[in-house]
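Supplementary material to the annual report.
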Amino acid sequence: MITLKTVQETREITESWIKQGLKIGFVPTMGCLHDGHVSLIKRARSENDKVVVSIFVNPIQFGPNEDFERYPRDLGRDCLICEKTEADLVFAPSVDEMFPCHNLAFVDIKELGDYLCGAKRPGHFRGVCTIVSKFFNIIRPDRAYFGEKDFQQLAIIQQMTLGLSFSTQIVACPTVRESDGLALSSRNSYLSDVERRAARVIPKSLDLARNALAGGERDATTLKNIIIQKVATEPLAMVDYIEVVDATLLKPIPRIDRPAIVAVAVFIGETRLIDHFLIEEGF
Amino acid sequence: MITLKTVQETREITESWIKQGLKIGFVPTMGCLHDGHVSLIKRARSENDKVVVSIFVNPIQFGPNEDFERYPRDLGRDCLICEKTEADLVFAPSVDEMFPCHNLAFVDIKELGDYLCGAKRPGHFRGVCTIVSKFFNIIRPDRAYFGEKDFQQLAIIQQMTLGLSFSTQIVACPTVRESDGLALSSRNSYLSDVERRAARVIPKSLDLARNALAGGERDATTLKNIIIQKVATEPLAMVDYIEVVDATLLKPIPRIDRPAIVAVAVFIGETRLIDHFLIEEGF
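Predicted assembly:
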């Protein structure tokens, strides 16, 4: 496995692979890799000739009061995981390497970012789209792998890829969970033991909503209240948002009468965690 | 020479060229080709193994009250010119081919579009950046050729290419002019004979400002007034803007104390034409 820090060297290697007709799978990450990332890398490994993992904590997708500075970084450990998962190339540039001068160019998406995390984190998805575009232009992957856990990001990246005529195929990979149901996230590492136990309330509250749905409940407000009431039982938890949105347009809907997503963002202490479940056609 | 209308076929050909190690030069146009375009294609021809010309009147760079509908289109004539200039591939997609569904993704630039045409044509440069990004992603050119006549577009494309880490090199080509000084533009074809004669006032007014500059004048307002007064002598001409801007940041400056651009947009009848001259370091 090669680890590179410069755009130029990475471009040269991926260009040589392309000229050899090799297919490139790409897994963009902010490091602090967990089993969710590992599942993406394994999937990429099984579907491509070469696998590139980027490790870059992207400053432009963090708001001014967010956790850019304290976001966990451990490149040594991440590279070991990539090596074990048989990645071919880790691209781990510095912020100066990716943004050598005041950056005026950006990529963004209309509409899909209007609600959910897009509403709560202004500029976040612009930062994501811009950095993913840059990585696509440097690496030129045939396929790129994103977790379904960040479903709004996934939908936006799919829209961006189509809309800007990238040739990269976006591959969605299922959320990986702990045994108690908590979705894996690098931010879970912020949680103290007490907070970690408190965080169980997130998947549990979603389970309650799913049960109500199975029992025939279709009203979005009722489903949201079930979640709110459950989260309220946990003193360390505070709701950031709970939304029921159309699964395609990601706009709030009052009733479950089409494919939909029930999505939450909850603060556990200082740590903001997101989770959701999908209600498919013919639920 | 091949003429293609689909993204898929164009991608396949350019990908096969890339795998063969061939260098691709790209000339994006809206058709209605004139000697300015020809100079771009010839330059691309001399510097690359393969030359791609796109011919596409891009709807998203026109404002609601602009000339998208009446913009001149003559694909047959354009293809003859491309063939004669030894292009290898003309990519001439339909609007539906480039925008098969409601497009939510866009590329834009901050600051460089705040003045000049950017201020007068809201959304114009966003439309330009988005379509050029799409073409870059489809064609993956090594070099792309743009005329200096549209200097704000050129600066914005250069900024976009750097900022989004495109590997394409942007090549700037000099403005081509008629013998009476009028800069070539596809929009010149809108002009009646009377209007065509009236349009001479544009390069003439710039010449007067250049002469004043050579005579020591450094005040931006004085230079602008010289142009305004000259244009006012032509009843068919109406100033849209006259600006003196910093040559790097494209922001208005009160005095010529650094490299600068004197830029005008003038309506001749219904037809809006632009022109400028550059004041280099050590003028």
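Chain B touches chain A through 33 residues (CB under 8 Å).
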